[in-house]
Amino acid sequence: MHDTLPFAGEPNADFRARIARRHAEAAETRQRELLEQASTVNSPDLRIRIWERLHEVTLPRDAGHRLLDVIAAQTGLTMAQVKAEQHNRANPPLTPAPVAAPDPPAGPGKS
Fold it and tell me: The dihedral of CA 55, 56, 58, 62: what is its sign?
């Protein structure tokens, strides 16, 4: 986005005010997401995904990774819940292969 540059003819005070509003909105959004990552209303999966987005880090695959303690603390989850999500991601449910529809019967005069 190029809104971090002054618009043509925009007074400096207006530009600074626009940038300050933008920073305040970004801080408010981040604060709201920090609350959401630990909200008991959200599932463990969603809380971990919010954490991943905020910190730009994916859930480690190693069950002994030291970051799991941080994730558990910051999301308000137990270590068992974090490890369960790790397990779910490593072992996604199998989806059955789609069953092909049978060919329609040939009508009169068709072969």
Answer: negative
